[in-house]
Each structure stands twice: as C-alpha cells, then as structure tokens.
Structure to design on (914 residues):
C-alpha cells in the first residue's frame, strides 16, 4: 500500500530551541528572581543589600593585617598598604592571642595534655557518631591522629610527647581497623582519661573512681544468681557507694604515697578559652542525655510520687534563667553543702548546667514518647518484656529517633550557653578572654575582630552539630516516603 | 466428676514487695520518698549549720533598707534613697519592658523571615537562610556585647554634636549630626530621642508609691475601646457576608474608628514632641555639656533589645517555616482549585492551620526571650538580675534570700506567660469532639 499523501510530512522536523525567555539563564532569572513585580522588587532590594554589605566588608577583609604587635601598628600598616583612611581588619590580634583564646591560662609547656584529650574525644565519639560504619571509624581515628601530631608540633610540644601521641593513635587506628567494636572501651574510659589529662594530679584518683564501677559490676555479677537482679543491683550500688565515699580516699592516698605516679596538677582557674567551653559543654552534653531520659521516663511514670518529683524538677529548672543556676553554683552551694566542703567551681558549674540541660532534654524526649502510638507499648507488654526491656528494645529507640532534632538543638543551646560562665568568674572565650585582650593597651579599641573570631568558631561547631543531626535523621529514617 | 478447685490462696510474702509488679511500685516509691526526705533533711541541716557558722539568719527585712545606688533607666520614680524593694520593682519593670518589646519585635522579624525563607525568590530565600543560620549558631551573648560595643565605641561623642565658635566662624558643620530628620541623636552614651509632651495633661495620682498617669491611661482605654468597636464592625460585616454573600466595604470605617478618636484625644491634650538639642547662645553656638530635652535611652537597653529580638526572631522564623511546611500541599492545591489567589490562600487557608503548629514553639521562644533578658548584666542593664540579684545582693550580702526571691519571681513570670499563651493556644486549637 503505497499511497502518495503529499499533505503528510515524511520526515520529522528538527527540534527547535525554546524561545530565549524559556531557556538557560533568562528562564532561571524569570522564574526565580522576577516572577512577579513584588518578587522583582524584593530581588532588587536584596541585591542592593548584598552589594552594600560586600562593599562594606570586602575591603576591610582584604586589607587585613596578620603580622603586627598592636592595634596602632595594624592601622599604620593598613594606611601604608591601602592608602590613608582605608579600613582593614587586624587579625594580628588573633594571631598573637591564639593560644590564650584556645587554652586560657593553661601552662604553655603542658598544651599537649588538653590537645591529646581533645583528639581522644573524637576517638571516644567515633563508635557513637558513626555507629555501624566500621571503616569510617578507623579512617576518622587515623585522620584525627595525623591532625593531632600537626597540632602538637604547632603548639611547640617536645618530641617525647609527640612520639607518645603518635604511638597512641597508631595503636588506636589499628584497634579501630581490626576490632572496631573494642573502641567502645575507649568511650567508656574517656571520662577518666580526659579528666586525668586536663586536671592532672595523681593517677590513682581517677583509677579509684573507676575501681568503684568495677566493684559495682563485680558484686552485681557475683550476687545476680543468688539474690536476683534487683536485689543484687541494690547491694552493688550500696557497696560501690561505700567504696567511693568512705574507703576510696584512704586507699588511693596510701597507694599514691607508695607509687607516686601522676602529672602536674592544674588549678581550675587556669582553664579558659575554648578549652573551658569544650570541657563544660562536652561533659554536660554527655551527662544530660541519660539524665534527661530518666527524667522523661519519671514524668511518664505511673508512680505518683516519682511523677510529681520529676515534674517539679523539670518545671522549676525550665522556669528560671540559666544565669540564676550559675549563680546558685557560685554563691548558694556553699550554703547547701556540708560545712568546709569546697569543691571545684568548674565542677559545680558543670553539675548545674547538666541539670539545666537535662530538664530541656526531658521535655524533648517526652514529646518523642508521646508521639509513639499506644500499640508499641501494648506490643511490648504482649511479648512479655518487663519495663526496662521494653524501654530499651522497643520504646527508646523509636522515641529517641523522633526527638533527635530537638535533642541536638538542646545540645547546641547548651554549648552556646557555656559562654555564660563568664558571669561567675570563669574565663570563657567570649566575655572573659576577649575582655582581657581588649583591656591590653596594645589592643585597646579592637572589637570586630575578637568577636568575629570567637563567633566564627562557635558557628563552626554549632553548624556542624546541626548538619550532623540532619545526617543522623536521614540515616535512621525507616519509613517510606 | 469435677471439683470446683479454688484458686490457691496466696499468702503475702515479703519478697513480693520486690518481685511482684503489683507491689513493687510501692516499694520503689517508699525508697524514693525516704531518699528525698533524707536529701531535704541533709540540705536543711547543712544550711542551718552554714548560716550559724557565718553568723547569718534568713530575713527579708533588708528589702526596706535604703538601696543607695542609682539606676539609669527607671520606669517608676526612683532615687538612691529609695528602698531595695523599690529597686527590685524598677528592675522587674525593666525586665518586663525589654521582654515585652522584644517579644513583639522578634515576632515581626520572625514571621517575615520565616515566610520569606519559603519564598520562591532565590535571592531572598538564601538571604533569610543566611540570617537564620548565623543567628541561631552563635551565642546570644556575642550579639548583645557586639551591639553594645558598636554603639558605645563607634558612635560619636556628645561634644561632636556641638556647634562651637570656630565652626560658626569657618561656616562648617559639627563632626556629628542627628539622624531621622534631625530628631534623634545617637551618642556613645545613649540615644537621645524626642519626648512626647502634653500641654493640657489630665493629671494623675499615685497608688502605693507608683504614679499613675491619667493621660496615658485615657489614651490606652480609648484605643482599646476603638479596637473593640472595630471588632464589632467586622463581626457585623461577616454576618452580612454570610447572609447575603456580599461583604460591605469596611476598611475606611475601620481606619476611621481606629485612628480618629485617639488622635482627637491626643490633639485635645495638646501633644507635641520635645526634640533633644543643645541650648544655643548667640549666633548659634551650643552651650552646656549635654543634650537637654528629650529622653535618653541607654545603649544597654537598645543593644539588649536589638540582639534579643534578632536572635529570638531567627528561632521564630524556623518555627513559622516549620508550621507552614507542616500543612500538606493538598491544602494549597485545593485552595488554588477553588480559584483563590496566592495571597488569599496564604491568609485564609494556610496560615490559620499553620498557626496551630506555630503557637507552642512560639510560647517557648517567648519564655526563652524573657529568661534571656538576664544576659543584660553583660552590658550593665539593670533588670531584675542586675538590681536584686546584682547590686542589692552584693551590698547586703544576703545571697540566699536574694537568689530565692529572684528565682521565685522568674518562676512566676514564666508561669504567667505560659498560662496566658496556653489560653490563646486552646482558643486556636482545632475544636474536636
């Protein structure tokens, strides 16, 4: 059948390019910037704002001076380089005071101790951060080790300690590569190792506290068969408490006299800068999560007394500003604690900041618990799980997953709030150290640079925390959408 | 043959207190109660011993002693001869002032930023993202101090505003000039803003040492009455619309009801503005060392207000954005299908539903802002923390009483704000069976 249909086109037309307004940059501009008159106006306003900002900031940044000894010298250099009346940042201040911003008044020759503790923190976090990604753990530990050695060289540590740090990290990387699960022991030991490295003193103090936990575990395991789980746990708690409160000090002083092993003790008032912010922040963050979980469970509890106490605690803490809690730590604890007991201000602040954060975390987790369907609880009961098994296996994994964004934003809030410790006389990077720098005659009148520098570091830490929570949320997402 | 076997009578054994879930909770609660009481006893005992050791007692009589310090921002009359209690009140009012204004400003900023962040305009949404992320991830303290430092170090000194003889001779102008059409002078000490003055005030009286200004009271009452009348007008318009389908035009009536009575009252009382300035001598030379007239707003207040509202605004922006995103796309698609324009879709369909999601986080942001006003001590803003928990505490040495009282006041403040907002929340909630 071969008809000649002359009115039917035989071949396809060549595809034409879309009109100029519907392609490429023009289309994108029309759609995203000038879709309506209102949008066009907003775009123009936004553009003007951006241009003004850049015109104000860029020359200031570009004229920045990195090498100078005082603000006036900085200004002289800027004037010489960029002409009279030009503005320029004086980063030389950051350059000169870098160590003070990071370490506060920590003795210079001992900078290796907080630096190693900071690096070990990442190793301790590795099993938690990338749970299930074993190779990633090993790579992270290795990278942290390399960075640590570079940092130690940077702060001028002696070769002996650099070698020590390198050896530790080679060993840890090997452990992470061969038996990643074993890295959890590092996480468990980190509180003691970190405390020992930061504050120093006799090695037997932290070991004594650690021994208390060992005694607890030993007694519990030994009595579990004979007396049952609950009673054994009760007895173990009592025994461990007796060890910590009564026996430990005697034993550790005795051993310390026999075998004086230890590092130079550092006073708490030598802590400062980001070292202080991280010490308070990390300790309070890791302690407030378990406490928050317990408080949330207490608030959901069927036992009226436990519930009332939890609600009272949470609502009281959430009702008062953090500053009043900090002042309680510095002014009121001397009334509430036994006479002549005087323990470290940083420790007191950490305890009250932990209380404060845990009340907020408890509320976040309560939201997660409330969001779980009733059926999950009933299914756990139907399987014959007891309360703690149900919480551990069914309820908490789901509730915590729901509350991740809220928990992480509480953590971010807590880390930002560590700056408030300046009000009780500690040298936080923002108020404490900056005030010292600004009262130095060489740097009098400088304000943008120190605040920008401190703000940038806070931004880096907080922003990466919030990005990590997004990653975690994505990774743990199991529903289909 | 079947025998009805009775269930074996369980005799109560002591071990059931631990192993039987029916009784275990009593055991646990008893232990908790004992531990709690022991803890309280321990605390009280320690406190009594410590107080005895320091030779102190608990008494609130110091509140009636002379305070002896000055407060530069005072909403009720206060001199350094006033009592500590009076200082407490001044501080509390300062806290409330900055918290109230901050909440309003933060809400405005937050709603704008949150809606604009969802805008289809690429540039604007990116700019808002930068704003929100920058403010959320940097400590509030930094913003407060930075704002204060910029104000107090980058602004001109008072003497720069003066017209000296040399300036008059050379025909130049002073080093610094006033802003906002020559009405506001921002110096390194404070902002001098125009003060409203009345030529025919209505007078006033004092209640318990707190002066009540009848003119202000009358203006507020009139404004509230106009708002109430306007609400009635809108209700009637709605009823007409529902009965006939045609909504009567109300906007000019609303405007008239809202504006005319208040303006009339203000004009009748003779409102005029006193603009700050120097006393000028012959041929325009300034005399004196400081501005006269107007109100001087200390920079501590301005910096605290700006920093608090920008910081909290970024959180509110996130809440608003989350609330709008929580409304399913089907709602806006249905609205478009009904022929509603985008603006009306937002106002009539999306926002009323989003509001329910937004209000709970908004409440907690208001509470946070109120509690964060305590950071004013970084810039010496004398709020409740600055007066009662700061200078009064240091002068009298009564840490226990001052801190307890302060915590109690903040607790009450939080409870009041959250209960008021919860009433609003309940009224906005979806009415369900």
């Amino acid at each position: 059948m071969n008809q000649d249909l002359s009115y039917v086109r035989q071949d396809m037309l060549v595809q034409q390019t879309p009109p100029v307004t519907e392609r490429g940059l023009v289309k994108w501009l029309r759609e995203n910037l000038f879709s309506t008159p209102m949008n066009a106006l907003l775009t123009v306003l936004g553009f003007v704002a951006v241009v003004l900002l850049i015109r104000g900031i860029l020359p200031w940044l570009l004229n920045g001076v990195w090498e100078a000894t005082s603000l006036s010298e900085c200004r002289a250099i800027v004037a010489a380089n960029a002409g009279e009346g030009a503005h320029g940042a004086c980063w030389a201040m950051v350059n000169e005071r870098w160590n003070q911003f990071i370490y506060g008044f920590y003795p210079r020759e001992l900078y290796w101790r907080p630096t190693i503790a900071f690096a070990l923190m990442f190793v301790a976090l590795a099993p938690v951060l990338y749970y299930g990604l074993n190779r990633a753990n090993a790579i992270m530990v290795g990278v942290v080790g390399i960075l640590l050695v570079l940092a130690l060289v940077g702060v001028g540590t002696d070769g002996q300690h650099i070698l020590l740090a390198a050896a530790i990290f080679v060993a840890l990387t090997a452990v992470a590569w061969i038996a990643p699960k074993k890295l959890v022991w590092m996480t468990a030991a980190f509180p003691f190792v970190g405390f020992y490295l930061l504050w120093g003193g006799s090695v037997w103090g932290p070991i004594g506290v650690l021994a208390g936990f060992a005694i607890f575990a030993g007694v519990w395991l030994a009595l579990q068969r004979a007396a049952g789980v609950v009673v054994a746990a009760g007895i173990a708690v009592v025994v461990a408490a007796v060890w910590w409160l009564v026996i430990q000090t005697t034993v550790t002083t005795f051993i310390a006299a026999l075998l004086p092993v230890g590092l130079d003790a550092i006073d708490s008032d030598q802590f400062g800068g980001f070292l202080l912010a991280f010490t308070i922040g990390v300790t309070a963050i890791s302690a407030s999560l378990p406490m928050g979980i317990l408080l949330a469970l207490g608030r959901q509890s069927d036992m009226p007394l436990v519930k009332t106490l939890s609600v009272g605690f949470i609502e009281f803490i959430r009702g008062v500003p953090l500053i009043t809690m900090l002042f309680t730590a510095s002014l009121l604890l001397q009334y509430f604690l036994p006479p002549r007991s005087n323990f470290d201000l940083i420790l007191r602040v950490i305890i009250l900041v932990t209380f404060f954060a845990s009340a907020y975390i408890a509320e976040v987790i309560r939201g997660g618990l409330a969001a779980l369907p009733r059926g999950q609880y009933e299914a756990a009961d139907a399987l014959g799980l007891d309360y703690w098994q149900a919480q551990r296996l069914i309820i908490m994994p789901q509730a915590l997953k729901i509350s991740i964004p809220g928990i992480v934003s509480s953590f971010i809030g807590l880390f930002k709030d560590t700056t408030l410790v300046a009000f009780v006389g500690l040298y936080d990077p923002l108020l404490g150290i900056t005030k010292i720098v600004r009262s130095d005659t060489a740097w009098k009148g400088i304000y943008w640079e120190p605040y920008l520098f401190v703000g940038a570091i806070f931004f880096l830490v907080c922003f990466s925390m919030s990005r990590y929570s997004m990653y975690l949320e994505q990774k743990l997402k199991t529903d289909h959408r | 043959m079947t025998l009805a076997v009775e269930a074996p009578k369980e005799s109560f054994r002591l071990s059931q207190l631990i192993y039987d879930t029916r009784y275990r909770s009593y055991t646990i609660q008893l232990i908790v109660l004992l531990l709690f009481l022991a803890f309280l006893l321990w605390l009280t005992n320690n406190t009594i011993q410590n107080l005895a050791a320091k030779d102190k007692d608990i008494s609130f009589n110091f509140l009636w002693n002379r305070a002896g310090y000055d407060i530069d921002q005072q909403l009720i009359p206060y001199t350094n001869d006033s009592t500590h209690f009076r200082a407490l009140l001044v501080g509390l009012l300062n806290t409330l002032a900055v918290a109230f204004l901050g909440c309003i400003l933060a809400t405005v900023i937050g709603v704008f930023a949150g809606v604009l962040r969802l805008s289809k305009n690429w540039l604007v949404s990116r700019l808002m993202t930068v704003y929100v992320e920058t403010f959320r991830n940097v400590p509030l303290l930094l913003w407060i101090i930075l704002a204060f430092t910029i104000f107090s170090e980058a602004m001109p000194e008072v003497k720069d505003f003066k017209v000296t003889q040399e300036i008059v001779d050379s025909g130049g102008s002073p080093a610094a000039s006033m802003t906002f059409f020559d009405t506001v002078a921002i110096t390194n000490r404070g902002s001098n803003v125009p003060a409203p003055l009345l030529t025919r005030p209505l007078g006033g009286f004092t209640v318990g040492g707190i002066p009540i200004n009848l003119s202000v009271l009358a203006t507020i009452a009139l404004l509230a009455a106009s708002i109430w009348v306007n609400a009635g007008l809108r209700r009637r318009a709605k009823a007409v619309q529902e009965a006939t389908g045609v909504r009567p035009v109300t906007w000019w009536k609303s405007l008239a009801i809202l504006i005319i009575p208040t303006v009339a009252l203000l004009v009748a009382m003779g409102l005029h503005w006193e603009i700050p300035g120097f006393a000028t001598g012959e041929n325009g030379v300034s005399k004196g060392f400081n501005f006269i007239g107007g109100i001087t707003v200390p920079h501590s207040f301005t910096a605290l207000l700006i920093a608090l509202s920008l910081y909290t605004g970024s959180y509110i922006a996130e809440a608003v954005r989350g609330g709008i995103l929580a409304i399913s796309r089907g709602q806006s698609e249905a609205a478009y299908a009904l022929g509603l324009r985008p603006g009306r879709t937002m106002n009539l369909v999306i926002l009323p539903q989003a509001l329910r999601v937004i209000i709970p986080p908004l409440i907690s942001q208001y509470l946070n802002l109120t509690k964060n006003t305590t950071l004013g001590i970084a810039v010496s803003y004398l709020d409740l923390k600055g007066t009662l928990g700061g200078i009064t505490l240091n002068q009298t040495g009564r840490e226990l009483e001052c801190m307890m009282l302060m915590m109690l006041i903040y607790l009450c403040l939080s409870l009041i704000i959250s209960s008021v907002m919860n009433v609003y929340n309940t009224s906005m909630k979806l009415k369900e069976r």
